[in-house]
Design goal:
Layout (H helix, E strand, L loop, with lengths): L2 E11 L9 E7 L57 E3 H11 L9 E5 L11 H5 L9 E6 L7 H11 L9 E6 L10 H4 L2 H7 L4 E8 L2 H16 L6 E5 L4 H18 L2 E2 L4 H5 L6
Parallel strand pairs: 2-4, 4-5, 5-6, 6-7, 7-8, 8-9
Antiparallel strand pairs: 1-2, 1-3
The chain binds iron/sulfur cluster.
The site of iron/sulfur cluster has 12 residues, from loops.
Length: about 280
């Protein structure tokens, strides 16, 4: 039976992107190919905030402190916190999902498979999870990805069957919410901006780009990135979203980012989990 290392599994409101406001189950897989230590820092500097958090002092994700710089889901990939993330069978994951769904079954809720980076190695296990009989009522799935991981041939073929199923009841709406990392993240451009990889996602579902923006410099980076994606033929929507894993930072630039979105004719994505739930773990 397949197993997946799960950082978090919780029920909340989707706060970002296309499904903003939709009740959703979040399945956060462990592991990421990036560190994104640049968020909230002056350009060229890296945050060491999470490095001062001692994993030995915490037994669950909900006890962990929030950070205002660097990756706000640091414990979902930092090996120092790996013991907080159990390796669960797909059966155990499904049972837990049934427990947290308000009616004990899928109705109008949506599944968000996030990370870390969920498309790293778990593509092999997802079909077992999604084909479980109790998952049959699930109709909408979003992969929240950083857009650097190619779909394996096998997983792409699997997704294709959902998209093209002859009977409507067996179709699933697949979305790739691609949070491509601009230089504000601290990750190098050549590793983070992978237009052809993201173009391929469009063959298997709806794909869109979602950039985290703090300044006009970030906006210029987003423009340059969008040009690169468009050049290879990517047609998806572009969202921009304010930086801010904590309320004080978010509140400083959400309005500005909304105004920039209007100026550019791009979509604005909020981070509803910040004003609603203070972006605490499990929200
Ligand atoms: S890609 Fe996402 S999860 Fe990975 S380090 Fe960057 S912000 Fe964190």
């Amino acid at each position: 039976m397949s197993k997946i290392k799960i950082a978090e599994l919780f029920y909340s409101i989707q706060g970002e992107g296309r499904y903003m406001g939709v009740p959703s189950v979040f399945l956060r897989t462990f592991g990421c190919n990036f560190k994104c230590a640049g968020f909230g820092m002056p350009r060229g500097e890296s945050s060491a905030e999470a490095e001062f958090i001692d994993p030995a002092k915490f037994r669950t994700y909900n006890e962990l402190p929030l950070v205002s710089t660097g990756c706000d889901s640091y414990a979902s990939w930092d090996p120092r916190f790996k013991d907080l993330s159990p390796m669960l069978t797909t059966d155990a994951i499904v049972e837990r999902i049934m427990e947290i769904l308000p009616h004990g079954e899928w109705r109008d809720e949506h599944l968000v498979i996030t990370g870390g980076e969920p498309l790293l190695g778990w593509q092999r296990q997802f079909p077992d999870l999604l084909d479980h009989p109790k998952m049959a009522g699930l109709k909408e799935i979003t992969f929240e990805t950083n857009g650097t991981q190619k779909l394996t041939e096998k997983f792409a073929g699997y997704l294709h069957t959902w998209k093209c199923h002859h009977y409507y009841d067996f179709r699933r709406e697949i979305t790739f919410s691609v949070s491509a990392k601009l230089p504000v993240s601290g990750e190098p451009w050549k590793d983070a901006i992978r237009p052809k990889t993201v173009l391929d996602y469009e063959d298997y579902g709806t794909a869109y780009l979602k950039f985290v923006i703090a300044t006009e410099e970030d906006l210029a980076d987003a423009e340059r990135a969008v040009e690169e994606y468009r050049k290879v033929g990517f047609t998806g929507h572009v969202y921009i979203m304010p930086i801010g894993g904590v309320e004080s930072v978010y509140a400083l630039n959400n309005r500005n980012v909304a105004l920039l979105a209007m100026r550019k004719g791009w979509r604005y994505s909020d981070r509803l989990q910040v004003p609603l739930f203070k972006n605490e773990w499990g929200t």
